[in-house]
Amino acid sequence: MRSLPLPLALTARLSPVAVLAAAGWALSSGPLAAPTAAEHRPAAQDKAETRSVAAPSTSAAPKTYAAAPAPCESVAEKTVTSLVPGAKAAGREIPSTDSEVRRTCSWNALKGYDYRWLDVSYEVMASDEAAEKSYREQVERRGGGGAVPGLGDSAYSVVGLTTEDGQQTREGVVIARASNALVTITYNGSDFESKKAPDTDTINKGAIKAAKEAVAALESEKG
Questions:
Q1: Count of domains in the chain?
Q2: Which of 99, 66, 97 has the alpha carbon at shortest distance from 179?
Q3: Boundaries of domain holding 42
Q4: Is the pLDDT of residue 52 over 60?
Q5: CATH number of the domain to which 193 belongs
Q6: pLDDT for residue 27 is more than 80
């Protein structure tokens, strides 16, 4: 920001002070000052000392994944039609505040009385450590599930049942970490005729199947 001009009267009062300050600078630091010991050192010595003080490294460790892949392309069409009968294979991407690091695609459909919903979400973090921390926190919050071996660096699956106004809904969630990225699958279903929900095994296997394809799609972006 440009400084405002000083009033003339204040400038006049400061002028003698400026003159004295300039004179003091000339005697202590300016051309009239006595040479310091540093000025008598050979130039070669200065260069050697400069080389001996290495600048600290500011480069961060490279990230395996720099951006989230297209989530609506992460699951095969036959998987979508199997898990969400009646849904359009293209899915619908949910708007994100930062699509470079966080993207979600959703499929849902009602076929007859059977309702199914599938979400595939990616979140790319700054480091493997940040992703691992977030993964652990999410697993601790959910509880009651178990590990899914052979999926990413680590993966966890849990299934829960809710009932509202007599209608059951069963939901499975799979959280997988691959390097600095998290993949989260949400899969649920209800039967509006029987008021019952699909069994645990159906929901759990469906969520894990989608998770395997979503993690494979992420890993194909590596390098």
A1: 2
A2: 66
A3: 8-52
A4: no
A5: 2.60.120
A6: no
